[in-house]
Design a protein that fits this description.
Shape: elongated
Number of domains: 2
Radius of gyration: 16 Å
Number of strands: 3
Number of helices: 3
Largest sheet: 3 strands, antiparallel
Strand order of the largest sheet: 1-3-2
Strand content: 5-15%
Order of helices and strands: HEHEEH
Structural class: alpha+beta
């Protein structure tokens, strides 16, 4: 089972941070910790949203990019704010609705 669009990235942030000094393949990233093996089947691991990508032939390698990460996190916060405000969820006035 895979989480909805791009959400697995939240789970991978600690692994990406740990390997942020160098480029790693998707397989290296996911097999570093056996808890993440299940994410191998996720087709929607959009690592390019938070990482720089280098390609070598058919292989891609990823390295966490702090600017991309910040932009991605900001977009998640803004989207959450939109949903809270549009649904008038209790406490939504605290997020600037």
């Amino acid at each position: 089972m895979c989480l909805p669009v791009a959400q697995p990235l939240f789970l991978l942030l600690p692994l990406l941070e740990k390997s942020s000094s160098h480029f790693v393949s998707r397989e290296q990233l996911l097999f570093e910790d056996h808890h993440f093996n299940a994410l191998q089947s996720c087709a929607n691991l959009k690592l390019d949203l938070v990482c720089d990508v280098k390609s070598a032939g058919d292989d891609s390698y990823y390295k966490l990019n702090p600017q991309k990460l910040e932009a991605w996190l900001k977009s998640k916060v803004l989207r959450t704010q939109e949903v809270l405000c549009s649904r008038r969820i209790a406490g939504s006035h605290q997020v600037g609705c």
